[in-house]
Inverse folding.
């Protein structure tokens, strides 16, 4: 569940692993502080800024966290869509037709028909779109 991982994720600059926690942007670098270290703010993990994404916080009809993040790729039938954040709202945006998009909150009703297939920062997923 996202509760214990914080609200953001990003790829570590030193090894490319995805880390979860709270996001800090400075003039010099971008960091994720893992949730378990927030108490004393001693662990800052430098991340690649382009890979930082926010949790959607979206839950299915049973209240279970979908674990969907900005930058995730969602498959509906044969169509791949990307979760984007535009003007403070999450959208499902078609990969092949970027002008076509659906507000993510509307997807809650049919979330069981959608499948997360990866994210835009995974080489294997980007090559499939």
């Amino acid at each position: 569940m996202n509760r214990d991982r914080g609200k953001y994720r990003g790829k570590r600059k030193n090894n490319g692993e995805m880390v979860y926690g709270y996001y800090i942007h400075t003039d010099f670098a971008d960091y994720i502080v893992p949730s378990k270290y927030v108490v004393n703010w001693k662990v800052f993990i430098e991340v690649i800024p382009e890979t930082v994404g926010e949790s959607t916080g979206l839950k299915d009809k049973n209240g279970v966290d979908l674990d969907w993040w900005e930058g995730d790729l969602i498959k509906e039938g044969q169509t791949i869509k990307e979760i984007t954040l535009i003007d403070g709202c999450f959208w499902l945006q078609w990969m092949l037709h970027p002008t076509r998009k659906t507000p993510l909150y509307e997807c809650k009703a049919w979330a069981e028909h959608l499948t997360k297939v990866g994210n835009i920062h995974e080489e294997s997923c980007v090559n499939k779109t």
Notes: The chain has a mean pLDDT of 83. The chain has two domains: 2-52, 56-126. The longest strand covers residues 18-25.
